[in-house]
Specification:
Helix content: 25-40%
Number of domains: 2
Number of strands: 8
Number of helices: 5
Structural class: alpha+beta
Shape: globular
Distance between the termini: 42 Å
CATH topology of the largest domain: Alpha-D-Glucose-1,6-Bisphosphate, Chain A, domain 4
Order of helices and strands: HHEEHHEEEEEEH
Amino acid sequence: MPQRYFKYKQLLSFTCLNFHNVRSIKHRFIRLYPPELITLEKNGEIMFQIFHDVDIKASASDIYKMITTEEGLNIWWTTKSYGTPQINQQYNFYFTDDYDWYARVIDCETDKFINFKLEKADKDWISTSLKFEIIPKDTTTNMLRFEHIGWKQANDHFRRTNFCWGQYLAIMKKWLEK
């Protein structure tokens, strides 16, 4: 069993038995993870994040279309989707009848970034945010910085989702660069 997992399990057991000492426990818990993977919210809740940076030889405009249009999203992620990249607009991310999810655009700027907040989705995804930011690297390459933030647990679903995001973003990159 990996040492990190063992420490995490020990900490959870200790937390359950000593709930009155949550503040010091949370500070010890934070030290077990790289600081970029977690945040401590104002209410003291620990949240986990997924990050991926992908260099893509494509224009910012082409990348933005891939992450904001029905045609683009359906190529690399959803089965069918719809939405408008405008603040407070709702997107539908449809995969199957059981996975028919909705998100709201929190912030966006054409050819630069879009930030979604999940409203209807798998229970682990509700209230999490997806942020796609396009950062110029040189005349032919842009970096897509992806963040999936606000996870309440670093559970098995979190780990699978992290892996899947890497795969989906690789599909997008391959499609854009062909």
